[in-house]
Write a structure and sequence with these properties.
The protein folds into 2 domains: about 160 residues, no CATH class; about 160 residues, Glucose Permease (Domain IIA) (Distorted Sandwich), CATH 2.70.70.10. It contains 5 helices and 20 strands. This is Peptidase M23. Keywords: Signal.
């Protein structure tokens, strides 16, 4: 089958601007942060210059015309992007200059705006060809006076802003706001999530538990082979972060990521069921990183820790697809199922569902 792809008529309002030394100094000063904890929904001053930094890209796709007006000479989407970038930098405990030195860019994709609120995707790319991995969040924002308050996915602010807005369809808005609110979900060892391929089929675990980026938590595992198709490990609302990277937000306090996909289905918030086709194993690097062969990079995120900002959680000790995961060295470890035994990287794993 040939799944639909991102519509060819999507108009992208991407801009990269080069700044003078004075503006860059302002940008660097505004970008300094002191904590890697969850971003708070504090309004960002409108005179920051984050959105126009050389390593920031802002995309509006027609949503710009629905954003509140900005001061003369300032694009409305840039005012919003300033606030989103500030929250992203705080969440990662870094600054734009530090990211630039590591060949990382920040992409702000404003996908919807309505009645003074906005919704979209924020990505910090990874250097192309490196072992590092990108980061991404959904974001919700609320215009307060002349400023924006922003919440990143996984924070109370995200859920509060989204649920109080007119963004998205009502059912989607309520489900996503509740499922990502750390006050409303609880952790569980048995998480009710399968594996990223069809229930009743097998794929080879080419890489055991490892980090989505360098180091812990070991939240990710790689699969290849079988029929090559990536499918939703549980139902939920599916968001294409870029062309080749999908996140499905489930109704149980978790979400799952699927990266490197080709023959990709663009999903801007679709309500999908378990086993929904997402794409095929591939080598897509829409947000950077590297691959050594076509595969599905599958990762688990949780929303139960108010200080985690919806971040990646360890697979160790958790059961997915009927198998309990155990970590060792990065890409090592194994999975175990009572009555079946242990499978190490390079072995075939059957998806028993959940």
């Amino acid at each position: 089958m040939t799944p639909p792809t991102s519509p060819a008529f999507r108009v992208r309002l991407s801009r990269t601007r080069f700044l003078g030394a004075a503006t860059l100094s302002l940008t660097a000063a505004a970008a300094l942060v002191v904590s890697a904890g969850a971003a708070q929904a504090q309004p960002a001053p409108v005179d920051t210059a984050l959105a126009t930094a050389p390593n920031v890209e802002v995309t509006a796709d027609g949503a710009a015309e629905s954003l509140p007006g900005a001061a003369p000479g300032t694009a409305a989407e840039d005012v919003l992007a300033d606030a989103v970038v500030a929250d992203v930098l705080e969440a990662r405990g870094t600054g734009l200059s530090a990211l630039d030195a590591r060949d990382r860019d920040v992409r702000i994709d404003i996908r919807e705006a309505s009645d003074g609120s906005a919704f979209g995707v924020a990505i910090v790319t990874a250097p192309m060809g490196s072992e590092e991995s990108p980061y991404a969040w959904l974001f919700a924002a609320d215009h307060e006076g002349s400023e924006w308050a922003v919440g990143l996915e996984g924070t109370e602010e995200f859920s509060e802003i989204l649920s109080a807005s007119t963004l998205l369809a009502e059912e989607e808005r309520e489900a996503v706001a509740a499922s990502t609110n750390p006050d409303e979900v609880s952790a569980s060892t048995y998480i009710g999530v399968g594996l990223p391929f069809s229930i009743g089929s097998s794929m080879v675990m080419t890489g055991g538990p490892h980090g989505f980026s360098s180091g812990h938590p070991y939240s990710s595992v790689d699969f290849a082979g079988g029929n090559g198709q990536a499918r939703a490990a549980r139902g939920g609302y599916a968001y294409s972060l870029c062309t080749g990277w999908t996140r499905v937000i489930h109704d149980n306090g978790y979400s799952t990521d699927y990266y490197h996909l080709e023959d990709y289905q663009w999903l801007p918030g679709n309500n999908v069921g378990v086993g929904h086709y997402l794409g095929r194993q591939g080598n897509s690097l829409c947000a950077g990183g590297s691959t050594t062969g076509a595969h599905i990079h599958f990762a688990l995120r949780g929303y139960t820790d108010p200080n985690a900002a919806g971040w990646y959680v360890p697979l160790h000790g958790r059961t997915l697809g009927g198998w309990t995961f155990y970590e060792g060295a990065a890409y090592g470890g194994y999975v175990y199922r009572s009555g079946v035994g242990t499978v190490y990287p390079g072995g075939s794993v059957y998806n028993y569902g959940f």
